[in-house]
């Protein structure tokens, strides 16, 4: 299709009747073809049991007051409960929870389709919080102040109408706020451009402006650090998805630049400034490589003094995944060929920073830090899991004991299944790791391959009871491809598929698909692929570039029209990742892989299922609608389902998640020749 000719532009009209009618017809056809029998109902019920299981781990969060906070959904509470308990209670098999907010009761009382979107608790004090509520799962939220003592919303408290707002507490009577206050208040990406200091009891429109970004920025922000003795305020503007200009806000309103590279990630903990580099940085004649983590004393460095100490440098196999602080220590999570390792770094005035392994990680497990509480001390919550190992949650203290708090149940029988890692060779010779989960003795059979390949996001092992029941336990093989564009090997892995290099990610994925067939794990007609969002773009690119490599495709909330993505919803915020279609040089390479512009007459494409949401206000459902219409016009096998709510996750409760999971698995089993395995 020529970029100047878009016969399906009308499908971008979100709720216009012609488009809505098209969606209803497509939904009805897909539901009729894939659901309605006893086998589908049984699979959906099995999946729902996993999602609603009472013995799941209630992963808690700490907020500086000693309580264990949790947001919980189950069959009796589909919208969820925000609740908390004590450590003593949490240790019990069935803790007594103090329910802070019942979202099902709230939605019923207010006749609103509320979906929980998080909370910001005031520190110190912990009495007041700002609750974010989404209608139907959208990114745009309503913000309302809540009193944790009275269990009620605060009359005449801080309240914001629906918008993609940014709010941060300063003290009990003031917050920083960026929100939609009419023309000029938002960037072209739809995020706050103007940051205000809002005092209780006054109109937000009259609040003092403390910082302004520019219209073509992604967003502006303000933050407040309430740590006693280290209180600081920061403001800044995100120039694009990766570059931010940051300032320390002085009491008189002055702005002191934070002297770090615009594309670096950084944070401040008490006296320390951490800088994580995306590109090389030369300081005092020393060039630090991309992917390095550096530390210095914040006040000295802002004043033009202070030395940088290297805490981590990457190598060919190892990258920094993330870091978290406790009160006195720094925990580093690294990836070694996509396997995570944890260690503790402790500042030592004599010898620099001491390093020790973090306790509480069983041999062979994939660990992650669930939470720390730097306000209170050096405790940490650590979970460990694997593709075939249900998670365990432990409580540890740096230098102290570790105890097991909870264990996840096994949701499927993993007997005879293994996890193997292989490396495929991409078109340019790059070795691309991927993990295979399944029966190593089985003949070639139905295989599900997934990937993402963007925004420096890493895909790491985790236990998935839904996938286990619906795919692995029925004889399927599951594969995760760690392609370029992700963060599995740090910034270099990401930059290798950035902008004009995006096709490297698709070549990597194709190399994994071919390697699976070469190893006898599957065949092209038995290989299904699935991905969402940027991973949905990956699905569309593989569909149009490598149609003979796969037997079925599932694209969830996908980007597909790379000519107009930057004009739809939040798309303008991603031009640093993909390129700017309005720049002829950028459009030249975007045109080369844009799935919507590379559907060819006379080519037989594998069957495809598109899943999206009318209420996705991040990736416009028009992408999936138009691609489905175009492929259908070419006589291809296209299934389409658009949930009326759910936002970018495509589902807003466990009932919808179970339905969409069962729909996807039924489609894959049918198209890949699984026969009764999908029953």
Automatic annotation (TrEMBL):
Gene3D superfamilies: alpha/beta hydrolase (3.40.50.1820), Prolyl oligopeptidase, N-terminal domain (2.130.10.120). The keyword Hydrolase applies. Residues 472-673 form the Peptidase S9 prolyl oligopeptidase catalytic domain. Keywords: Hydrolase, Protease, Serine protease. Signal peptide: none annotated. It comes from the Bacteria. Residues 5-221 form the Peptidase S9A N-terminal domain. InterPro entries: AB_hydrolase_fold, Pept_S9A_N, Peptidase_S9_cat, Peptidase_S9A, Prolyl_oligopep/macrocyclase. Pfam families: Peptidase_S9, Peptidase_S9_N. This is S9 family peptidase.
